[in-house]
Specification:
2 domains; DNA polymerase, domain 1; 12 helices; elongated; binds S-adenosyl-L-homocysteine; single chain; 10-stranded mixed β-sheet; alpha/beta; two-stranded antiparallel ribbon; binds iron/sulfur cluster; 12 strands; TIM Barrel
């Protein structure tokens, strides 16, 4: 079986090299070609002698993804559809911001968490992605850019629940932020979770990336109805884990709150949310629901959204209304299914 070099860390790559009769510094060169220079084939690896290039070609798995299509939205958002080697499909979304690009990547094909508002959840779980399948999304998108250095921010907010694929995601993060890897700043990598408490606790020890938590309701009854995971890890437990999460100086946890008309958007919901988050270093992203999996749910009218925000702001929270981008190509939050490329 071929070795998945992009999923190995520096030490493991070195071990692989030594096992194949190469000097350790060759591992650093190979790693540089794969993760930094984004080499698509061994032929590109010019400072390596031919015999080493052939060895890498023969022994290593280089391209775990195949680009199927890329669609660009009217607002500049670009959605990439990738096929895994076993045929499953995943999506990544490139979002232009004022002065940089953010890439939203997938951690699983499908998702097992079953959140009611989410199209990915509705589609069910296919499988976990390998570390290299996570990293390759970033590599392939970078390769497609005229200015790859403009891509500075990575968010794990695509398909799947990253903390349900813990080991692969942490490995991918390691290579994304390693200086001899893809060299992203750990301050610019964000992992979003539906709230798997034991893994949130582990994550704080294993990485220093940003944490975002999809909260979406301030009481257990509503949250359990929207997000089955809440039956296992109710709000008090989840927020306790957030309080204990080791945050570097001035860092905050982002709480995502999808606003759904008549379900979680009343004044009393905003007040309850403010009470529950008090004392937490929290900022709140309010996301008006995108048309997703449930026909009976809709976003609130704008005045309701603004009122909800005002209540939070009044209580000294930073609450941002996040305009969803890429809706016309079904690239917005909760719309990724790996299927419908023609809305
Ligand atoms: N599984 C992780 C990360 C992927 S979901 C998580 O749940 O956090 C990424 C984000 O999309 C989450 O914040 C989720 O709440 C949001 N989302 C899902 N469906 C949505 C919809 N229909 N409209 C708006 N946001 C949605
Ligand atoms: Fe999975 Fe996140 Fe969608 Fe919930 S919101 S079903 S956890 S991808």
């Amino acid at each position: 079986m071929k070795t998945d070099l992009k999923g190995l860390n520096a030490r493991e790559t070195e071990q692989w090299a030594v096992d194949h009769g190469l000097e350790p510094y060759r591992a650093r060169q190979i790693r540089h070609w794969l993760l930094n220079r984004l080499a698509a084939s061994c032929e590109d690896m010019q400072n390596l002698p031919k015999r080493i290039r052939s060895l890498v070609q023969k022994e290593a798995l280089l391209g775990p993804l195949e680009e199927v299509t890329a669609l660009t939205s009217d607002d500049g958002t670009r959605k990439y559809l990738f096929r895994l080697q076993d045929g499953h499909l995943v999506e990544s979304v490139l979002i232009p911001e004022r002065d940089h690009l953010t890439l939203c990547i997938s951690s699983q094909a499908g998702c097992a968490m079953g959140c009611r508002f989410c199209s990915t959840g509705r589609q069910g779980f296919k499988r976990n992605l390998a570390p290299s399948e996570i990293i390759e999304q970033v590599i392939m998108v970078k390769r497609s850019l005229n200015n790859p250095e403009h891509l500075t921010n990575i968010v794990f907010m695509g398909m799947g629940e990253p903390l349900a694929n813990y080991d692969a995601v942490v490995r991918a993060i390691e290579n994304l932020i390693a200086q001899d890897g893809m060299n992203f700043s750990h301050r610019k990598v964000t992992l979003s979770t539906c709230g798997l408490v034991p893994e949130i606790e582990r994550l704080g020890h294993d990485t220093t990336v940003n944490l975002a938590v999809s909260l979406n309701a301030a009481d257990d009854e509503t949250r359990s109805r929207l997000m089955p995971v809440n039956r296992k890890y109710p709000i008090t437990r989840l927020l306790q884990a957030c309080r204990e999460f080791p945050l570097p100086n001035r860092r905050m946890i982002t709480f995502e709150y999808i606003l759904i008309n008549g379900i979680n958007d009343r004044d009393q919901d905003a007040l309850k949310l403010a009470r529950r988050l008090s004392g937490l270093r929290a900022k709140i992203n309010l996301i008006p629901l995108n048309p997703g999996s449930e026909a009976d749910m809709s976003p609130p009218p704008m005045e309701r959204i603004l009122r909800f925000q005002e209540i939070l702001t009044h209580r000294h929270f930073t609450a941002i209304i996040r305009k969803s981008k890429g809706r016309d190509i079904l690239a917005a939050c909760g719309q990724l299914t790996g299927a419908s490329m023609h809305p």
